């Protein structure tokens, strides 16, 4: 079975001693131990210097075809960050990552139309998946952005335990918010979400190397869903997002 | 050699005996907790899907209800599902020593109750007269006591102090010591000094250690599978064991044999492995 981990990372984690997988070889070897076939990766260097780190990500992904490049976008639009709308579009079109990440809380900017709208407009135009770690956004911000940018593909990584009460309205009232299932840990939640809303907006992630893949694998494998739903969550839904990127607009 | 992982990759019940040492029956919906199912028959159905043969439970009235209700619920579930559900005597110190004594007296001779369950921090610190009484009782009975600990450093140190005074009780520290790697390392130190201390796995979502890492810390004989069902979906920590790249013989220990070892000389209820070739009904009595 093809299993794509959409939330992996390369580079060092400064505050972690339990597991470091800084190099692609380390990451791939660890993925093999857990039957993960592919991973969408960004590089921690890109959080320090997005242009240099993203270039490093691209170089690695060109060498290892199981790894797929995710770029870090550094708001606001400025010459030393991600450029203006045309420059950002050109940059993404030339380099063709399969996703981007933003870290608004870490970058001390609210995740909102007001503060990030110019970037979100570019990403929406390209139908580029935007991956966001839990803690980098609030659920109020997600609802506002999802409604104001209805074609933006917004992927929430590790949306937290005990947040079923926000998961249901986001599933029901938006079409463009996607959920990583790695900590969809409220009892029976994954089964219930698939039953009510389908599996199309659910994606597998382990958030390697911060966390490990086995628990998230268990959640998907033992949810009371069909094998077709499992295949969709593990790989097909992500591939559909990648295939939906509007490179033709470049 | 990898029959457990093969079964898990096929979404089938794992082909070895499994005891879930940490569960709660009945609903609990405070603080964002959510359960898509909460009836005991639905719990047993989910157990069958994963291959969990037996759960040991302290029902949710443990948290903010009464011992009487929690323990009666465990007794009733064990009667309804013989061999599939066993109970802990819930200890709620806010009801006072006399009521703790009464509950222990009422249920300690019931063969379906295997030990005691403490919910420290929710119910205050371990050094309380009610817990001291219950720990002394458990030490006399050489039975397991499952103690919640999550993010509470002083809680772990209190467990160490409790162990320094008691060598017969089997203290099973829940949530890998406290939910985070630093707690697991600290619990491992305590376990090195106390053979009667065990680590239980559930609620490991924030712990950066994998199961093989935890075994590296505490050895393969004292890590115990638990899920925190029905607070948490049992598939998560079950998956951590089932998909772990460790030998099936070690997984068998984590899934059942290590818990059974805590009952070996216990004078409370027993859990007997009747037929390890079966799944569900008939594996345990």
SSE map:
The complex is a heterodimer of chains A (250) and B (285).
Chain A: E1 4-10, H1 24-33, E2 38-43, H2 45-48, H3 50-63, E3 67-72, H4 85-95, E4 99-101, H5 113-126, E5 130-133, H6 139-148, E6 154-157, H7 164-173, E7 177-180, H8 189-197, E8 202-203, H9 214-221, H10 227-243
Parallel strand pairs in A: 1-2, 2-3, 3-4, 4-5, 5-6, 6-7, 7-8
Helix pairs in contact in A: 4-5
Chain B: H1 3-9, E1 19-23, H2 40-50, E2 54-57, H3 61-64, H4 67-80, E3 85-91, H5 97-107, E4 113-118, H6 129-141, E5 144-147, H7 153-165, E6 170-173, H8 181-193, E7 197-200, H9 211-218, E8 223-224, H10 234-242, H11 248-262
Parallel strand pairs in B: 1-2, 2-3, 3-4, 4-5, 5-6, 6-7, 7-8
Helix pairs in contact in B: 4-5, 5-6
Describe the structure.
- The complex is a heterodimer of chains A (250) and B (285).
- Chain A is α/β, with parallel strands linked by helices and 250 residues long.
- Chain A has helices spanning 24-33, 45-48, 50-63, 85-95, 113-126, 139-148, 164-173, 189-197, 214-221, 227-243, and strands spanning 4-10, 38-43, 67-72, 99-101, 130-133, 154-157, 177-180, 202-203.
- Chain A is globular.
- Chain A starts with a strand and ends in a 7-residue tail after the last helix.
- The model of chain A has no long low-confidence stretch (mean pLDDT 95).
- With 285 residues, chain B is an alpha/beta fold.
- Chain B is globular and about 50 Å long.
- In chain B, strands 1-2-3-4-5-6-7-8 form an eight-stranded parallel beta sheet.
- Chain B is built from eleven helices and eight strands.
- In chain B, helix 4 (67-80) packs parallel to helix 5 and helix 5 packs parallel to helix 6 (129-141).
- The interface between A and B is large, with 39 and 39 residues.
């Amino acid at each position: 079975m093809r299993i794509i981990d959409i939330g992996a990372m390369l580079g060092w984690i400064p505050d972690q001693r339990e597991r470091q997988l800084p190099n692609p070889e380390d990451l791939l070897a660890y993925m093999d131990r857990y039957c993960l076939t592919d991973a969408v990766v960004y590089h921690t260097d890109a959080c320090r210097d997005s242009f240099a780190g993203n270039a490093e990500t691209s170089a690695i992904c060109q060498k290892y075809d199981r790894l797929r490049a995710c770029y870090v976008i550094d708001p606001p639009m400025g010459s030393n960050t991600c450029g203006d709308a045309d420059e950002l579009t050109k940059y993404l079109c030339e380099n063709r990552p399969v996703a981007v990440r933003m870290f608004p809380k870490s970058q001390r900017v609210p995740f909102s139309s007001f503060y990030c709208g110019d970037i979100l407009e570019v990403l929406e135009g390209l139908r580029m998946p935007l991956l966001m770690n839990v803690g980098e956004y609030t659920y109020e911000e997600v609802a506002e952005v999802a409604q104001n940018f209805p074609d933006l593909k917004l992927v929430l990584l590790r949306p937290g335990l005990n947040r079923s009460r926000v998961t249901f309205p986001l599933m029901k009232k938006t079409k463009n918010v996607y959920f990583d299932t790695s900590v969809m840990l409220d009892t029976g939640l994954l089964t219930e979400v698939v039953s009510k809303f389908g599996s199309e907006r659910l994606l597998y992630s382990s958030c390697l190397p911060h966390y490990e893949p086995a628990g998230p694998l268990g959640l998907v494998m033992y949810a009371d869903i069909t094998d077709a739903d499992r295949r969709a969550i593990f790989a097909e839904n992500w591939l559909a997002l990648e295939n939906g990127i509007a490179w033709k607009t470049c | 050699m990898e029959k457990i992982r093969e079964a898990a990759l096929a979404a089938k019940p794992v082909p070895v005996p499994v005891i879930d040492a940490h569960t709660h029956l009945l609903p609990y919906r405070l603080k964002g907790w959510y359960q898509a199912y909460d009836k005991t028959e639905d719990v047993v159905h989910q157990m069958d899907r994963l291959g969990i043969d037996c759960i040991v439970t302290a029902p949710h009235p443990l948290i903010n209800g009464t011992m009487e209700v929690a323990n009666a619920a465990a007794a009733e579930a064990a009667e309804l599902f013989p061999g599939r559900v066993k109970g802990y005597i819930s200890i709620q110190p806010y009801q006072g020593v006399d009521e703790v004594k009464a509950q222990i007296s009422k249920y300690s001779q019931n063969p379906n109750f295997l030990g005691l369950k403490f919910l420290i921090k929710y119910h205050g610190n371990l050094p309380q007269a009610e817990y001291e009484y219950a720990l002394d009782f458990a030490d006399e009975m050489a039975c397991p006591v499952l103690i919640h600990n999550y993010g509470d450093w002083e809680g772990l140190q209190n467990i160490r102090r409790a162990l320094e005074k008691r060598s017969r009780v089997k203290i099973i520290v829940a949530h890998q010591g406290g939910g985070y790697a630093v707690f697991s390392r600290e619990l491992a130190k305590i376990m090195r000094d106390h053979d009667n201390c065990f680590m239980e796995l559930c609620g490991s979502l924030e712990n950066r250690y994998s199961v093989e890492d935890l075994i590296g810390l505490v050895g393969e004989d004292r890590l115990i599978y638990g899920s925190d069902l029905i607070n948490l979906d049992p598939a998560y920590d079950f998956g951590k064991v089932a998909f772990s790249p460790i030998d099936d013989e070690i997984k068998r220990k984590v899934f059942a044999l290590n818990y059974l070892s805590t009952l070996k000389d216990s004078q409370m209820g027993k859990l007997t492995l009747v037929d390890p070739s079966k799944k569900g009904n008939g594996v345990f009595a």
